[in-house]
Amino acid sequence: MDINYASIITIGDELLIGQVIDTNSAWMAQELNKIGIPVKHRLAVGDTWDDIWYALDEECKHASIILITGGLGPTSDDITKPLLCNYFGGRMVVDEETLAHVKNIFTNILKRPILDVNLKQAEVPDVCTVLKNEKGTAPGMLFKKNGKVFISLPGVPHEMKWIMTHVVLPLLPTLFKTTNIVHRTLLTAGIGESYLADLVKAEEAALPPFIKLAYLPNSGMVRLRLTASGEDKDLLTKELDTHFQAFKERVKEFLVIDEDLPIEVVVAEILKEKKATLATAESCTGGYIAHLLTSMPGASAYFKGTVVSYDNSIKTKVLQVPERILETVGAVSEETVKIMAESVREIMDTDYSIAVSGIMGPDGGTKEKPVGMVWIAIAKKGETIAKRFDFRYTRDRNIQLTGINALNMLRITICG
Amino acid sequence: MDINYASIITIGDELLIGQVIDTNSAWMAQELNKIGIPVKHRLAVGDTWDDIWYALDEECKHASIILITGGLGPTSDDITKPLLCNYFGGRMVVDEETLAHVKNIFTNILKRPILDVNLKQAEVPDVCTVLKNEKGTAPGMLFKKNGKVFISLPGVPHEMKWIMTHVVLPLLPTLFKTTNIVHRTLLTAGIGESYLADLVKAEEAALPPFIKLAYLPNSGMVRLRLTASGEDKDLLTKELDTHFQAFKERVKEFLVIDEDLPIEVVVAEILKEKKATLATAESCTGGYIAHLLTSMPGASAYFKGTVVSYDNSIKTKVLQVPERILETVGAVSEETVKIMAESVREIMDTDYSIAVSGIMGPDGGTKEKPVGMVWIAIAKKGETIAKRFDFRYTRDRNIQLTGINALNMLRITICG
Description:
The structure is a homodimer.
Chain A: E1 6-11, H1 13-16, H2 24-34, E2 39-45, H3 49-59, E3 65-69, H4 80-87, E4 92-94, H5 96-110, H6 116-120, E5 123-125, E6 129-131, E7 140-145, E8 148-153, H7 157-175, E9 180-189, H8 193-199, H9 201-205, E10 211-218, E11 221-230, H10 233-250, E12 255-257, H11 263-274, E13 278-282, H12 288-294, E14 303-308, H13 312-317, H14 323-328, H15 334-348, E15 352-358, E16 373-380, E17 383-390, H16 395-415
């Protein structure tokens, strides 16, 4: 099978000194997969002429489509555009449509004076096809050389995404033969990666060569992914689904959902389907669970609100935890977290509530209550359950694990 | 100057299909920079024998130190270890120390039966130096070839970080001559990238060749970074600081802080210094601001709590916003957000409070109140101020921008 691969080159010293995390590449890779273009490499290089030149030379050996992000800004450290002009042997000309667009942004939207460097954004190599950027001043550019396509996009995520969605993704299948790549993912909880592998070993042995199996452990859950690729989409999907069903049946005891969705999306779907509402009372997670639940559009259908009782006085005053409980068994206890859950459910008048209280570290641990110890409670009408967890990680990971496990506990409570 | 570069190779199909975002590389790059080892490339490849082999062959042409993460798990999709054994011409042997460590994890910590695949984690190529992994079962491995060093680490972030911190970072300066890399960053707000560049053009022109300037626009703020590298650390730092002072003086009107810190850290430092306390009342951000503030250790010194009033009933019941205000001017209004701020400040008994209410999208916008419209209020004793913002982005970015601008508004309120 002759596959047209893409390679993603990201440009910027900030990527090599670790000043920013590259989220662009993951999004681009997902979208390329959807239209049947697998990604061969992701390569990050600095804002250096020779390094960018090398990346272009090298990646077109491995891929048909070379996607380049970054280095298109108006400042002197942005050298991608002159380099591409040189690389493809062109000269800089003004693109009138881009110029009108840049002027419109400054005059009518930003209402600020336009500088020379802003106007320069409308200059492009005469050997490229301009890809319109409705969200910013730097246009995308498409170059062709020896049957390969090079596409340069701005590094600002929402600008890159706009050009990808509206211009690049519709265009690529008209330029290249695409392949079929189909993924199926099972999200499991309560079983480690090696036990899961042991559990599905018969199913794994039965997989044909065109279906690849992968395990992705993360935050106490393991995703098991099957990926099929090939020419005949119908046959591929049929075969994949047969094997997927076998895996699903085998892991059913640990199955959270048979889609590649984060737990907050799973919980949101369940709540919407049951027309149930939720509130949270958060101590150690400091609003993280509420943030996860409200990251999704339409959260107001099921989510009513939160009390973050970071300080003990808020636990007493707002969440009605008696002072004597805080003084005797303390804030990180089954008693406290149950009252927190019940109080917030009553205050917010919801069907369910989540409450968490724990010690996230790095300080604040004691011998009896070490860092990573967390109590999680779920309240519903007539019943409140609580469970102790012990995480042994860094603060950010302890917060994340608490949130994910609290949502999974709610899922189990609702679905049984 | 003969520089010893590092290259970071990340292995995993999940990186090429965009199923996970690579946060490891950024952290590794930061830490390598601190010890004077610049990163040349970051290359992500799939779980494929030929692609990993290629990456090793290619990257040792560009770097002295090749750091490899991923593919060391106990399951069949993890092929890094046998590949490295083959690449460096070794054979697999049991490392007794690792074996004892793996057995101890299963017997004494996880208290679960140990599987054959778990025991296999203790097998390593006999041509490597084992790097102890206290946090997991897959040890790190160090190989040497033609004066280059190859280091393989697990992809699980907290395991990778432990081995890097305790083994790799102390070791590298004993194997290679390091260079001096010094960064200085100014965080600015209220000025666009191109205007900032225009403002500092005299200072930019005065920079010597060994100091590089970069602009990093993000979330309505722009970071301006100066990076110096060279042999003589004292001279380098002295020169850099002189230029940095000139830039700082020039941008003072827009300066948030003269360090590379996120705004929540800046606000936390100010609150701690002033011994002041804070509470938040969040509608559209759904706990995001509280989450930012409690991500940092020691947050309990200044942060007391939050009411997330996602549903209007919570605004009325908990935050005392009169129903008639919600009915007349609505939840997204100056009046509502001011009352929210004042109420939460009173309930939580704090020096300052932040309140936000807006429409994050994609749905819920109207002609009068479009998606991206947000009211932010800051309350302190005797005074409450509010300001309207209009963001024009996607939901997640609108939430992020609201949070960052709210924290910056608080900063300005406190510091003047």
